[in-house]
Amino acid sequence: MSTPSLWKKSATPESLEARAGNTAISLLGIRITEIGPDYLRATMPVDHRHVQPWRVLHGGVSVAVSETLGSIAAYLAVPEGFHVVGIEINANHIAPVPEGQEVTAECRPFHTGRSTQVWQTEIRRADGRLACVSRITCAVLPDPGAEPRR
């Protein structure tokens, strides 16, 4: 028996990458690698663009990864005629990620309601150790001028 998908809008990693061109997402090298039935996965290199002066992943960049995945996931999980906006985000930084590694991030839902959604992203180092866990809350809003369908 297959698991039903959470997504109400269709997308592929390639279509998301194309849409992210010339944005902070592409500037940071965040790449969506997998769209599962209820999760998104992404990778990002940790190079000179991503580190603090001590040459480890900057916490603000981890938050940008989480905001990216959570916002995309929330958008894909609302029906046509709706969009989402982030209204709160938090992050706990657990372990440093040295420059030269690649991180993997996975985002899953906590709550996908009609007016708000909450998504959690775990960012892991190359050795699998949890580097950051972050949660974003998004408001679900009707598109301006659209006739929303629920």
What this model shows, in words?
By secondary structure, this protein is of the alpha+beta class. The protein has a single domain, classed as Thiol Ester Dehydrase, Chain A (Roll). Helices cover 20% and strands 37% of the residues. It contains three helices and six strands, in the order ααββαββββ. The protein has helices at residues 13-19, 24-28, 59-76, and strands at 31-35, 40-45, 82-93, 102-112, 116-124, 130-142. The chain has a six-stranded antiparallel sheet. A hairpin with a 5-residue loop joins strand 5 and strand 6 (130-142). The longest helix is centred in the middle third of the chain and has 18 residues, at 59-76. Residues 56-132 form the Thioesterase domain.
Characteristic terms for this protein:
single chain, 150 residues, alpha+beta, Thiol Ester Dehydrase, Chain A, six-stranded antiparallel β-sheet, 3 helices, 6 strands, 20% helix, 37% strand, globular
Average residue pLDDT: 94
How much helical structure, as a percent, in the residues? 10-25%
Q: In which order are the strands of the major sheet placed?
A: 1-2-4-5-6-3
| CATH fold-level name | Thiol Ester Dehydrase, Chain A
Q: What letter string, H or E per element, gives the SSE order?
A: HHEEHEEEE
